[in-house]
Amino acid sequence: MALKARYGLSQSAVGIDNALAYQSLEKGQLDLTDANSTDGELLRFDLRVLDDDLAFFPEYQAVPLVRSDFPAAARAALAPLGGRLGEDTMRRLNAAVAVQGAPFAAVAADYLGGEGLGPRPQAGAEPAAKGGWLSPRGTRIILRTREHLQLTGLALLGACLLGIPLAVLVHRRRRLARVVLYLAGLAQTIPSLALLALMIPLLGIGAAPAIVALLIYAVLPILRNTLTALLGVDPTLRRVALAMGLTPWQQLRYLVLPLALPTILAGVRTATVISLGAATLAAFVGAGGLGEPIVTGISLNNTALILEGALPAAALALLAEWGFEALEARLVAAPLRRDPLAS
């Protein structure tokens, strides 16, 4: 490791998230860790920052990064911040959010007011809560849940439109079906974050790469269950249908798909639960959803923020399970319903 070689360290180095590393230092489980010099958590745990006298790490310099078409008025408003935001200042501001729990906007407004760059908030004044009868946190949860459902809904719709027809097309050709399943399974071996990162050069950031990545993960259970269901239809019933004069399309419509429906629904159900959990990673590419408070909570070591995303995501998974149970009771004939817990 380069740092180990530069400083001649004898300790072994392992990668760990900063928020977890700070706790490990406090408990005596770590001797030393790298850190962001502006991290407010350094003040929470009263950690001593060592001087990088061999200049291994890049020097902290705060500069605004904007697009070429950024409005000139906004650029002019940011210009007075030049040379003001040093490491100590940023560490103090971040600590106000991470340690004291102050809102981002309130901390920024207080700093700008103190520097004479804006009106200073009056003592005791609190920003007006938006969202009517809902608290700011409740409004945030509703908005993030809506984004989460949009991501997973579009991904699942695409996975169903791709996986089910593809299974119908290839289920009569065993070799082709194996190839298709192999390719779908191969995509599942790509780690979630790596897949999201691979999507960014192709689709940019935002919802598009997240939806495509979720679609890729959702296809396998839908495709596999659909193929299993279609191949599991009793050949005798197919021969009877053929003897009755049913065309291949009529066999598929009136015999094969109704018999396969419980297993197909089970695949969609599994894909839904997987997607609801995996969609929390969409926050890493700026797609929003319930992963955003989780990611922010991890970086700030804020349990309340982590739960703000984790609990609604878990609740959505439970609601999806109950919803599919109700859907199966409505769409599947009673003799065909299968209880997965039945002996």
What's the SSE blueprint?
Elements: H1 2-7, H2 18-26, H3 41-44, H4 72-78, H5 87-98, H6 104-114, H7 136-170, H8 174-188, H9 192-203, H10 207-231, H11 235-243, H12 248-278, H13 291-300, H14 303-331
Helix pairs in contact: 7-10, 7-12, 7-14, 8-10, 9-10, 10-12, 11-12, 12-14, 13-14
What would your notes on this structure say?
The chain is an all-alpha fold and 343 residues long. The chain has 2 domains: 1-125, no CATH class; 136-336, MetI-like fold (Orthogonal Bundle). It is built from 14 helices and no strands. Helix 10 packs across helix 12. It starts with a helix and ends in a 12-residue tail after the last helix. Residues 127-131 have low confidence and may be disordered.
Number of strands: 0
Helix content: 55-70%
CATH topology of the largest domain: MetI-like fold
- Shape type: elongated
Key phrases:
single chain; 343 residues; mainly alpha; MetI-like fold; 2 domains; elongated
Quick take:
The protein is mainly alpha-helical and 343 residues long.
